Amino acid sequence: MRNELKKKLYFIEDYTIITLGLLMFSLAWTVFLLPAKITSGGVSGIGAVIYYATGFPVGFTYFGVNIILIAFAIRILGASFGLKTLYSMGVISVALTVSQQMVKEPLVDDTLLSAILGGAISGVGLGIIFNRGGSTGGTDIIAAVVMKYRNISPGRIILYCDVIIIASSYFVLRSIDKMVYGYVTMAVVSYALDSFLSGANRSAQMFIFSRKYEEIADFINQQSYRGVTVLDGVGWYTKENVKVVISVVRKRETGAIFRKIKEIDPDAFISMASVMGVYGQGFEKLKL
Fold it and tell me: Which three-class secondary structure state does DSSP give residue 247?
């Protein structure tokens, strides 16, 4: 009974956070990018180009193009698309349509500032969505279809699609400046997305060589609440037995650990490396 309740609460939490990310993504477009006539990548970019040319709402285009892509992909790849992708597609379509009707004036007049703010908020929104296992569909679907027949990385396919979509805005707006701002936005989105996904939860693996290893291990274990492993080693130059303290911690926790190690043993030797991902025991949950 308790496990079922936990699953329901996690399900609600999951979709609540994904919805927040979807709304951020949508508002980035309608508040900053569309009023400045900036085109970024993805299906939203296609919708923006059509909007600049015809005035047709971006939300309708986003929904229509994604429906076509999903139908096309199901025919080729099979019905393997999750509920979160369909949910995200629906929320973004509605949010873009509603917010576009509400926002009549640009929030900022500077085009470069609009590109940076729109790209940053859009990137963080996508980071929130991806961090909870969601997907916005679009060029991701194109990448999945192409990968079935060609050995090309999905990142490269998405990049090619985004470059073509942004370049197509020139034929509508007839402005090199707007096209360049589109590429600026694309770069900011990529940077913000990567920073969000790896920055807040970035971890470090520490190797500490010290004669006072017990005090250091106790501090990390009791004060930082992180697991510690102590291994036996041999210093090959001195041929002396040494103890090696190994721990994986959050990057933000390393400052306090360094200060304490300096206080306990100023002569300690420390090696620290960034790690790509840490799962279980106080870190990230392993997601399939």
Answer: strand
